[in-house]
# Entry
Amino acid sequence: MTTTRRGLMAAGSVLLAAPALAQSQQVRELTFYYPIAIGGPVPRIIDGYCEAFQRESGIRVNPVYAGTYGETLTKAVTAIRGGTGPHFSVLLAAELHSLRDMDILTQIEEIDAGAETRAWLAGFFPAFMANSLAEGKTWSVPFQRSTSVYFYNKEQFREAGLDPEAPPRTWAELVEAGRRLTRREGAVRWGVQLATNAGTAQWTFGALCNQVGHVLMNAAGTEVFFNHPRAIEAAEFWRALAFTHRITPPGVTEWATLPTNFMNGTAAMIWSTTGNLTNIRENARFAFGVAGLPGKEGPRTVVGGGNLYIFKNANPAERAAALRFARFVTSAEMAADWCIRTGYLAVRPDAWETEALRRYTAEFPAALVAKEQLPVATGELSTFENQRVYKALNDNLQALLTGAKTAQQAMADAQAEADRVLRPFRRA
Amino acid sequence: MRSRTTLHAWLMLAPAMVLLIAFTHYPAVATFWDSLFSTPRATRPARFVGAENYRALAEDPVFWQALTNNLIYAGATIPLSIVLALMMALWVNGKIAGRTALRMAYFTPTVLPMIAVANLWLFFYTPDYGLIDRITAALFGWGPTNWIGARETALWAMIAVAVWKEAGFFMIFYLAALQAIPPSLHEAAAVEGASRARIFFRVTLPLLGPTTLFILVNAVINGFRLVDHIIVMTRGGPDNATQLLLTYIYEVGFRFWDTATASALTMVLLAILALGAALQFLLLEKRTHYR
# Structure
């Protein structure tokens, strides 16, 4: 509390005297929340970035690990409403509309509309910026971004008589490969595993829908298209993987268990984030491959991950300092380092031109797969009341995959509930 | 003189009263008041809606499922944990080798934080390579079972964790009560030629009455309160199969920020607990023998 007040006074006095740049020098400390959705030593990496930033700027940044994406959102919003929130946070990129509706975000242009900042914003991949832009303004900075890819066990491919260098590219090939890889006697092995838990099912489903050429929501985030015939087709395909082809386990599969199952050899293929790449590379005791998700006709996927949001409760000086931190961690060198150490996609094309990342991708071409998927990737489901819409969809996807509902029924129910939730926003 | 005594009485009551009002009565009244208003949003301030939130709850299928689940959950955990606690207490009260170690083993789950317990059981329940699947595969040759990922088994998997966690705690109370029973009563019954079962039902059990009432009150509260493991393990899934009232309140209140509906839900939970406590004290107190 005292730091905020002190900061406010400092900001107030400086505001009269000098423009934005001078303000950030008055800030001594910032706090930010971040989620972890991947394996590997993420806290150590984040701590390292904060220390490097402090050496450069003299501003101390306290990173607070706050759980999964959903938990981090809950904690950040609760803290902000209680008046002691973080100054900025990494949250799901798809929360854009919900967070704007809560009126807790500050726009980047409001903090600094200078030409330099504009040029920096223009340097991100447009596919990622799509989740940051609304009403012509920028509301977040792409940071830990990913696409959904699949990891496959080359040794199990060979053992099943499949070509480890030609992984499936279509649904039909996926089913065929899955059938040959699934083993029901002795040590059970599933052909493919997809995450179906409450925080992740909607992401997987977004990829599946894109694979039949369907987008789940409108750009304004006020309408969803769950009961569209193509969405039902995607749901039907997912259900069939579990119940007809029996190459994926029925019921709920937790996101966090996927890499473990893969490295234990109980899942021959997993659909996961590219952010898990480094973790799997360091811990898998077998040769593995990375490929773009198969589509009905050809590879199609979904982007995901988290952006940096700067909150209104930070004073102008703190906002400027937070923006400076955002610029620091998304600079070409840092983005390249983040990419190498986790597997998350470097969010700027110029990062891929750095010496470090070039050398890395030359010796480990799998790191390029996720980037190559960007042209065939769609945005993650993102609406107003995002968490509620996620629940409507995820509950019904779980009902679908536990065998309680047909695809038709599940999608109709999800649509009805989402329509009810979104009604007030469509009137406006 | 009289007024001074009254003043003293009030002063002595004050600390407890301030705490009770600040942390029990005021929140309850404020929650009730909030439940009569709509949820404030950035652009729409809260307005009085009367019973609207309660009417919306009555039409919410997830609420009814949470309520049903909670009744099953409470209905299973309460008797199971109490009977188990009593059996364990009787067992470790006897003269057996390694008694201290056994008592400690039974009490361990109570000492562990629920979050740690949940993470532990997450591994037990993991399909295929989890502990439980390994055991069922070795004993019955079953294939992998998705214990917490299937609608049929998820709630029972949660109940098992709660019973495992609670029984040890209740056992301590039973153990203390058992040791307070004068041995002369058992000896007298034995001299009369009563069977062991008769001694248990006619002597031991009635003397454990006050303890049982205390444990029962606690078990009922825990039946609605002990949800940490659900948040960690299933978050109410799959498809609300493990959704309980408290997890639903958390979800509506802190994930969706629909504070009005969450307030109405809280009032429902409060009413259930108040009713339960009143029934227990009214009905059971008369039949409990205090010494």
In short: Chain B has a mean pLDDT of 86. Chain B touches chain A through 27 residues (CB under 8 Å).
